[in-house]
């Protein structure tokens, strides 16, 4: 199957140390990977530093397993005066299966900041 997406922002593989007590990957691990991916997309758009201000939506569709190859895709959903909302989608491929599984999606909001950590215009 060919992904509907272009290049991922991040591609990585979780380790056994990233598991929860069920033996699947801990939700906090994927939240953190998505935050990093969204931060990269937002910083490119803002042409400088950004911080995460909110996670507006987050859905865990399927568990992630050790050995999965995890790809996080991001696209800009909305640009405000100082904020940028990034839609993030996590897709995994599992073992030798060529299929892609959508495991999470969410909307993360970032704010462009100046050297003092205060909001600055995205296009300023
Ligand atoms: C992000 C931060 C600089 C914003 O400062 P602030 O004084 O609250 O800024 P403002 O109220 O002017 O809001 C800035 C923008 O963020 C948006 N925003 C603020 N809170 C929001 C929320 N809960 N959800 C979505 N957008 C939000 C505002 O709408 C505004 O967007 P716009 O300019 O495009 O209209 C400040 O809250 C902060 O430093 N937070 C901690 C960030 C951080 O440490 N993140 C890592 C977490 S571990």
TrEMBL record:
Annotated source species: Sneathiella chungangensis
Assigned GO CC terms: cytosol
Residue ranges constituting the HotDog ACOT-type domain according to the UniProt record: 4-116
PANTHER family membership: ACYL COENZYME A THIOESTER HYDROLASE (PTHR11049), ACYL-COA THIOESTER HYDROLASE YCIA (PTHR11049:SF5)
MF annotations from Gene Ontology: long-chain fatty acyl-CoA hydrolase activity
Classification of source organism: Bacteria, Pseudomonadati, Pseudomonadota, Alphaproteobacteria, Sneathiellales
The keyword Ribonucleoprotein is assigned to this record: no
Sorted UniProt keywords: Hydrolase
Single GO biological process annotation from the record: fatty acid catabolic process
TM annotation in the entry: none
Record-linked Pfam families: 4HBT
Highest taxon of the lineage: Bacteria
Record's keyword annotation contains Iron: no
Protein family according to the UniProt entry: Belongs to the acyl coenzyme A hydrolase family.
Name of protein: Acyl-CoA thioesterase
InterPro entries hit by this protein: Cytosol_ACT, HOTDOG_ACOT, HotDog_dom_sf, Thioestr_dom
């Amino acid at each position: 199957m060919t992904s509907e997406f272009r290049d991922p922002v991040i591609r990585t593989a979780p380790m056994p140390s990233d598991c929860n007590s069920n033996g699947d990957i801990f939700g906090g691990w994927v939240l953190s990977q998505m935050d990093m991916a969204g931060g990269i997309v937002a910083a490119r758009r803002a042409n400088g530093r950004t911080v995460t201000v909110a996670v507006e939506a987050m859905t865990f569709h399927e568990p992630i397993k050790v050995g999965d190859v995890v790809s996080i895709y991001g696209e800009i959903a909305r640009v405000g005066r100082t904020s940028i909302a990034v839609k993030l989608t996590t897709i995994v491929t599992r073992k030798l299966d060529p299929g892609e599984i959508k495991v999470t999606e969410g909307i993360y909001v970032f704010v462009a900041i100046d050297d003092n950590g205060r909001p600055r215009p995205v296009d300023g």
